[in-house]
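Wait, can you check?
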Amino acid sequence: MKLPQVTFKVRELGEWVDKTTNDLFANKRVIIFSLPGAFTPTCSSKQLPGYETIYNALKDKGIDEVYCVSVNDSFVMNAWAEKENIKNVKMIPDGSGLFTLAMGMLVAKDNKGFGKRSWRYAVVADNLEIEKWFVEPGKIDNSPTDPYGESAPETVMKYLQSY
């Protein structure tokens, strides 16, 4: 499966910049992980900082870049990266959820007051082709739980080490 072609609206240096799927992911082997929302507990305490912590080890395993996608706008993603002191993981705002929808990962989280958000997952993609999926179990709208483990950086690293 190929990564979906979308345009992300990104705020860089005080200006709006359009970044396409090709701009971000073409001709690279990347990890893209997605999560329910910026500033949320598991996302802020485990998943995002976990990928930041092992960023160099992932690069040593042939990964060119690591991207965090969330159905949040660019202002929120940039503020979250700043608060969490993220220097290596690239933040991608999917404010309208177009990428997440095309990935088949958009779910309702109305039971938490979130609206439409991403189900938690990670992929390894090589030049726009998805090589491996890591999807949390039990994907449903308004899930009463927020599973975490399958898309954790440690799980992705185990896969990369199996080469």
Observations:
- The longest strand covers residues 29-35.
- The chain is about 30% helix and 30% strand.
- The beta strands are 7-12, 15-20, 29-35, 65-70, 90-93, 106-108, 116-118, 121-126, 129-135.
- The chain has one domain: 7-161.
